[in-house]
Design brief:
With about 170 residues, the protein is mostly helical. The chain has four helices and two strands. The N and C termini lie close together (about 10 Å).
Length: about 170
């Protein structure tokens, strides 16, 4: 079953990766598939892709665990350093561990914030989240409606792996 966006394949220009990234993609293809990649067996390529996706999932799980450990250590170090009124600890390799203070805002009243932004003449700084803009453009493209002013759309076609039993 084809995606509902497949019908846009000949209507939208193809998405192009940033050139330095695409150069790396091309180099990987040459090194791992060869000079005639279109002669490769698509089933073998898909099998390899599925294996790499699983390897990525495992690596991401490991990174998540490392991030949890880093946060636990940070919280513990902060508690100890604050209780002992220490701002910095020098390490034997010449590096240092120090307390960093950052303000993290959280919007509680979007209307009030929008009024403040307008009063400060900062409207040009407002932006639409990319997910929302993509949804609007998807809908417009499927309906044949014009895209929002100042927006161009491209169609990126990707191969995906669906695990056995996953819904489409």
């Amino acid at each position: 079953m084809s995606s509902k966006y497949a019908k846009l394949r000949d209507k939208l220009p193809a998405f192009e990766q940033e050139s330095s990234y695409q150069d790396r993609v091309n180099a990987w293809t040459l090194e791992n598939v060869g000079e005639n990649p279109y002669d490769a067996n698509v089933s073998e390529l898909a099998k390899r892709m599925a294996g790499l996706k699983r390897s990525k999932e495992i690596a991401e799980e490991q990174i998540y665990g490392i991030n949890v450990a880093l946060e636990a250590l940070s919280q513990l170090i902060v508690k100890i350093m604050q209780s002992e009124d220490i701002e910095k600890v020098a390490l034997s390799d010449g590096s240092s561990c120090y307390l960093s203070y950052e303000v993290y805002p959280q919007v509680k009243d979007k209307i009030a914030l929008l009024g403040w932004v307008k009063s400060k003449k900062m409207s040009e700084m407002l932006s639409l989240p990319w997910q929302t803009l993509r949804g609007l453009c998807n809908e417009s493209s499927l309906n044949g409606s014009p895209l929002p002013s100042g927006v161009e759309s491209y169609l990126k076609v990707s191969a995906r792996i669906r695990k056995n039993g996953e819904k489409e």
